[in-house]
Design a protein that fits this description.
Blueprint: H1 7-12, H2 35-43, E1 47-50, E2 55-58, E3 72-75, H3 78-83, E4 87-88
Parallel strand pairs: 2-4
Antiparallel strand pairs: 1-2, 1-3
The chain binds zinc ion.
Zinc ion is lined by residues 57, 61, 63-64, 89, 91-92.
Length: 102
């Protein structure tokens, strides 16, 4: 009977310590909202306003054209604009130009 085999096991147990250090590689994807589609939908409305201003316009007002599409909000009627706290633009006068009646 031979007992000399066990000596070899002790040497192979020690692993490489410190080699498994994981570095944090955080790649952040810059997700861009589809601003053009949002602006196109808002411009299709007869009245528009900027979420950063307190004035609303006719959609064909020259000031409405200056509103950034990401801030653009569309409305179907001046009453909806006023309900949201907007006031009429003095250039395009979206309230005065509406047809009488109703
Ligand atoms: Zn205007």
């Amino acid at each position: 009977m031979a007992y000399a085999v066990m000596l070899g096991l002790l040497a192979s147990v020690a692993g490489p310590l410190g080699a498994g250090c994981s570095s944090d590689a955080d790649k952040r994807r810059q997700q861009k909202p589809n601003a053009s589609a949002w602006g196109a939908a808002a411009r299709a409305k007869p009245y528009v306003a900027s979420s950063r201003r307190d004035v609303f316009h006719h959609s064909d007002c020259r000031w409405a054209a200056k509103i950034s599409e990401r801030n653009l909000v569309g409305y179907d009627s001046p009453a909806d604009c006023i309900a949201d706290g907007y006031r009429a633009c003095l250039v395009c006068k979206p309230i005065a130009s509406r047809p009488s009646g109703g």
